[in-house]
Amino acid sequence: MSKIKQIELEFNCPKRLESMTSSQGFNCADCSNEVIDFRERTNSELQEITSNSITLVCGVFKRSQLSIKFMRYAAATFIATASSLSANAQEPVQTDSLEIAIDSLEQEEDYFIGTIVEYQAEPIGGYQKFMETIANSLKFPPELNEEGRVFIQFTVDTLGRTGEFKVVKGYNDVADKTALELMKSLNVPFNPAKQRGTPVKTRLIMPVTFELKPEK
């Protein structure tokens, strides 16, 4: 039986398995999706499940089962939100930092959750430019006095248009509202995801980080 490998996910979900109900798989209360545990399944089982599903399949995978392309996307997002592309630190991500970030992700996470796609949706201009746009547009609310990260979910339709924005994990009402309004206002066009060569509507989850200004 061949092992599952080179999987691409549409997003890196911030939810933890501990927060999901479990039977044979897991169920996410926020999006009402079954999350199938593929960590010990074979490639033939994966193909059978995805072929028989009328919707995109959400699953949980080991790091070793994921493609380097997805890991680079996850690492770029990790860099952008954890350090260099937050509200008050807007230096561009250095390409040679990606491998370090992948190592950091491997130390922090033992699994990844996301929707399986053949080709990911991607902002026109790339993720680094998209994260720079978020950082440059983000205004730290003066009444906010704590740092944190807000995860915004949104859809990308078959024409690459974004919509259906909502907070899937936040930390402060003011920050949550600010991040949500920011993401709604950007209108960044995407190349849509594709499944079996056909554009499909998918969803993404992007983190927005708020950092307090250092004292002068």
Explain this structure.
The chain is of the alpha+beta class and about 220 residues long. It has one domain (about 15-210). The protein is about 30% helix and about 25% strand. It contains five helices and 14 strands. The protein has a five-stranded mixed sheet with strand order 1-2-3-4-7, with no helix packed on it. A three-stranded antiparallel sheet has the order 10-9-14. It has a two-stranded antiparallel ribbon with strand order 5-6. The longest helix is centred in the middle third of the chain and has 17 residues, at about 70-85. The radius of gyration is 17 Å and the shape is globular. The termini are far apart.
Question: Would you kindly provide a brief summary of this structure?
Answer:
With 216 residues, the protein is an alpha+beta fold. It is 29% helix and 27% strand.
Major sheet: 5 strands, mixed
Tally of contiguous helical segments:
5
Assess the beta-strand content as a share of residues: 25-35%
Question: Kindly, what is the distance between the CA atoms of the first and last residues, rounded to a whole number of angstroms?
Answer: 60 Å
Classification by helices and strands: alpha+beta
Helix proportion: 25-40%
| Number of E-type strands | 14
Mean pLDDT: 78
Low-confidence region ranges: 81-98
User: What is the succession of H and E elements?
Assistant: EEEHEHEEHEEHEEHEEEE
Task: Write down the overall geometry.
Answer: globular
Major sheet: arrangement of strands: 1-2-3-4-7
Domains, number: 1
Round the Cα radius of gyration to an integer and report it. Answer: 17 Å
